[in-house]
Amino acid sequence: MSAARRDRESSMKVIEANDVHRVLEFRTLIEALRRTFGSPAGMPQRLMFRLDPDGESRDVFALLPSWNGDVIGVKAFTYLPGNAAVGRPILHSKILLFDRKTGEPLALVDGTTVTYWRTAAMAGLAADYLARKDARRLLVCGTGNLAPYMVLAHASVRPIDEVAIWGRNPDKAKQVIARVAERRPDLRCRVAENLEEEARAADVISCVTASHTPIIHGEWVRPGTHTDFFGNHERDGRECDTEMVVKSRVYVDSRVNVLAEAGELLIPISEGRFSADDVVGELADLCSGRVAGRGSDDEITLFKSVGTALADLAAAELVSRSL
Known about the structure:
Mean pLDDT is 94; it is low at 1-8. The protein is built from 12 helices and 14 strands. It is of the alpha/beta class. It folds into 2 domains: 3-114 and 311-322, ornithine cyclodeaminase, domain 1 (2-Layer Sandwich), CATH 3.30.1780.10; 120-308, Rossmann fold, CATH 3.40.50. It starts with a helix and ends with a helix. An 8-stranded parallel β-sheet has the order 9-8-7-10-11-14-12-13, sandwiched between helices. A 6-stranded mixed β-sheet has the order 1-6-5-4-3-2.
């Protein structure tokens, strides 16, 4: 190997979790996603490999490729839910960036932290098109690592001043509130005790749970509410019921991924109560202006996401360029 080649390869950045947290903030990240989704890009369907297809294990290895005019990216992640029982993280991820023009590797970025940031930023970006401009009351369902990010992302695009956190373990909900307070001590947050009451009162409902069965029911949700569902990636699982889908204007991050993986839409389709053609548009359609967002203050809107490689690309590229 020549000295010049060694120098080029050694110049590839290795970006760890602390760097991601240090660089990113939601207003900048949401605008980066808006530009990326509103511009020409490539994003094939992601590849999900069951590591034990004939057994009971839900272990998965996945590859998510994408590219724009400047960079090519591929995210690789492992999902091993059994790790939780032995105190290990269930998700590990890395994102590799290449120069679009030369093909040279540019950066290896910690994908786990990028996933938290970009997932919440996608929720914030969708809400910027779909939530009422005066939305103030936010209900977040879920108390995992993503929950505080979802609060902060929504509060960056709407005048949120009242936040309820619901989870099956109130102590974990308190931990989420404490993490939110580290960045936004001005937000009034509380533990949600009655999920139905909180859902009926909310302007925005954001779900990031591990529930396999509906926790949000359409009959609870009043006109003008915006909802999003990020927690479920299973064809036979869902965080909301069929009524929630049927009464909403439905948007997705990616048709090809959501309609392959998300029970929130696939189950109503199998029941004959919803159709793939009923999806109003993708996030790229909203960002490019090809479809309209909220049309009136009385509409109920629903955004379903299973994650996209293009969001990973935008966030990783932003981090890489900032360091």
